[in-house]
Design goal:
The chain is α/β, with parallel strands linked by helices. The strands form three sheets. It has an eight-stranded mixed beta sheet, sandwiched between helices. It has helices at 2-5, 15-30, 87-99, 145-155, 209-223, 240-246, 259-271, 284-298, 320-329, 341-353; strands spanning 35-40, 51-58, 64-69, 76-78, 117-124, 131-137, 161-166, 178-183, 187-192, 195-200, 230-234, 251-256, 277-281, 308-311, 333-338, 356-364, 374-381. Helices cover 30% and strands 27% of the residues. The chain contains ten helices and 17 strands. The structure holds S-adenosyl-L-homocysteine. S-adenosyl-L-homocysteine binds next to helix 6, strand 12 and helix 8.
Length: 384
């Protein structure tokens, strides 16, 4: 299965060896910059994914299949269970597939654009047990949807919310922009490091909650806040890192491109009684430079300053405009959380050529069995 799906490149390699490989990668990349600490591994490196995504299609005989795209293609490899996915989520997907025929629901065909069900996304709050099912459909018309949800919940009463997401676009994006809540509250809650977080269908949430607590712990340790700092958390998602930082800083500003995630972040601040975190919707590379320019205008040329800036970008890393503004704001520390070592190296090169040096870094294995490695880096102003 691993060979066909292409997702778990390290499957079959003993876990200790996988960790060695990943640590070596971080060392090759960063050793010349500064001290690399040993990678933080996972005790039980299986079934860790709290989010499971299945593409729906038909086989040659017209039977519904569900699984993942084969790496680099749009061919669906059927998957009923997977060694890294949450087992409950896998079972729900199999149930959904089994219900399609009796409800006369056709799976969507990318070539002919005929059919209804495109994808199913499942998210489970590992510490709360709450489960969200997102049914991604090609059209808003979903005949007998209420009975479908009823039948699904009859088999899996543990499902706490069901959302229909409408994706009528011809792109490879999984989710469209419109959500219709079919059952429950439309989001789940989960707990991380003692805080409660609301997570909506469109919002990003780390897929390996066990390791996420370690990753956030490291980011917080690197930030080393004393209580009087102004901190920016760029690419903040639902405000997870922001709210942990806020408990130790004077003021935190979070920036995130997905509006629903910012709604969650604001709600999450309220749920956790945190009143020193403010959130902005937009691209980090636009919001921060605009804030900087506006501050300068309003304060007679005085420039905006931050004590600590945390970035946690997607794989493509940070835009250079953003790095430029970060440097202008002269934070004492920059904490860079990265899920892609190539763009991390590019961005560190920029920061190191512009007055910063790497003080510490460490990998955290967020994705056992795969080649991906998450890295947390602490930079500080040269000479400090
Ligand atoms: N720090 C968060 C999210 C990290 S994932 C957490 O740990 O949960 C990266 C986030 O960046 C995603 O939520 C994504 O929606 C957001 N994002 C992607 N491009 C962005 C951009 N240009 N500006 C701001 N946010 C962006």
């Amino acid at each position: 299965m691993a060979k066909k799906c292409g997702g778990c490149e390290f499957q079959g390699m003993p876990y200790a060896e996988q960790l060695k490989h990943k640590e070596k990668r971080v060392r090759i990349l960063l050793d010349s910059f500064g001290k690399v600490h040993p990678i933080i591994g996972m005790k039980d490196p299986y079934h860790y994914r709290n989010k499971v995504h299945a593409v729906f299609d038909r086989d040659r005989r017209g039977n519904a299949i569900s699984g993942v795209y084969q790496k680099g293609t749009h061919k669906v490899v059927p998957v009923d269970s997977c060694m890294i996915e949450d087992q409950k989520a896998d079972k729900i997907i199999v149930t959904i597939r089994g219900l399609l025929k009796s409800f006369k629901i056709k799976t969507y065909d990318e070539d002919t654009q005929y059919g209804l069900l495109r994808h199913v996304l499942i998210r489970r709050g590992f510490s709360t047990g709450e489960i969200m099912v997102v049914l991604v459909t090609a059209s808003p018309v979903f005949p007998s949807k209420n009975n479908f949800v009823k039948a699904l919940r009859k088999v899996h009463p543990e499902i706490t919310t069901v959302v229909q997401n409408i994706n009528d676009r011809g792109t490879s994006m999984v989710l469209g922009t419109r959500d219709v809540v079919l059952y429950g509250k439309g989001f789940i809650e989960d707990k991380l490091c003692g805080c409660t977080f609301r997570i909506s269908a469109q919002s990003f949430y780390q897929v390996n909650p066990v390791q996420t607590e370690k990753l956030y712990g490291l980011a917080l340790e690197y930030a080393d806040l004393k209580g009087d700092e102004t901190v920016w958390d760029l690419y903040c998602g639902i405000g997870t890192i922001s709210l942990f930082l806020a408990q130790k800083a004077k003021q935190v500003y979070g920036v995130e491109i997905v509006p629903q995630a910012i709604d969650d972040a604001k709600e999450n601040a309220k749920i956790n009684a945190i009143d020193n975190a403010e959130f902005f919707v937009g691209k980090a590379e636009e919001v921060l430079p605009e804030y900087y320019a506006e501050y300068e205008r309003e304060h007679n040329g005085e420039t905006a300053h931050a004590d600590v800036i945390v970035v946690d970008p997607p794989r493509k890393g940070c835009d250079e405009t953003l790095l430029e503004t970060i440097v202008k704001m002269q934070p004492e520390k920059v904490v860079y959380v990265s899920c892609d070592s190539a763009t991390l190296a590019r961005d560190l090169k920029y920061l190191c050529a512009n007055g910063y040096e790497i003080k510490m870094c460490r990998g955290v294995d967020q994705f056992p069995q795969s080649v991906h490695v998450e890295t947390c880096v602490l930079l500080s102003k040269l000479g400090q």
